[in-house]
Amino acid sequence: MTITELKANAFDSEKSTNLLSQLNQNQLTALSMQIDAELFWAGSVEEQNNETARLLTKLAEHKVWILERIESSDCPREMTKTGCEIVERSSVPCSNSIDFKFNYIGSGLWTTIYEECGFLAVYTDINQLAIVTYCEGDVVKTIAPNREAFDAECAHLLDCYE
Q: Over the stretch 7-40, which tens digit does the pLDDT of each residue have?
């Protein structure tokens, strides 16, 4: 769901709640940030016409609902096909995967299991059962619940990239 879809259904409480209920934690977090941006760029509610002010107020209400849902135990986590949890999606201002590894991963216990032309890399930390993929500045960090899921996720990523 995008901010555009939420705005289109903002005044239909049942439909918007139904749509929001289908989102996982990472999707809700991204939508929450989109709402923050919408509210920031709109300025104060008092400066808007009535219809826009109503919409901004409704978006703020949806934001509260989203934050409560994220904090609740029944909010689904984003999972991979192999059963690993995607714990973080982000973008970093790095020029290539080597720059990313040096500045964000560090030396630690991370192992590079795949790297291509400096724009794509997969790093693993077997002790944390963690996998980080870097692709042109987009970063996804995954945590496996056990060694079998970790190995399956690594194999899946290598199949995709090789």
A: 998 899 899 989 999 999 989 999 999 999 998 9
Task: Tell me the CA distances in angstroms from 161 to 48, 96, 106, 113, 132, one per residue in order.
Answer: 49, 17, 23, 11, 14
HSE value, Cβ hemisphere, 13 Å, CA-based, for 132 = 21
- Could you tell me the pTM of the whole model? 0.72
* Distance (Å, whole) CA 123 – CA 132: 5
Phi (first) and psi of residue 125, to 5 degrees = -130, 100
Q: Which two tokens stand for residue 25?
A: 């934690």
Query: Residue 140: what residue type?
Result: V
| Residue appearing with tokens 């005044």 | 11
User: What six digits make up the tokens of 4?
Assistant: 């555009």
Q: Are 105 and 111 in contact (CB under 8 A)?
A: no
